[in-house]
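My current task is to audit a protein record that another person submitted. My question to you is simply how this chain folds and whether the tokens agree. This is what I was given:
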Amino acid sequence: MSSHGVVRKWRVTKGWGVIDSCDAPGGCWPFYTAIELGEENSHSRIEGLAPRQAVRFDWEPATQDGYLFRVIRAIPVDTAP
């Protein structure tokens, strides 16, 4: 399923965080390997996402670290005008 959401938190040292979306109540768990930043930025993928950053993401139902949803692919949304 594809959705839009906002990053609640990101744990750089662990490489995962939480994305909030109405489509995934309680939060959706992303791991850094699911983040798509483009080839030129692939080295910074583990730095992940920033809190309050908008993302488009694909997810699946799954039990992961206490969350009922897991991100399959996340793409940061460019918020520039």
Summary: The mean pLDDT is 87. The radius of gyration is 12 Å.
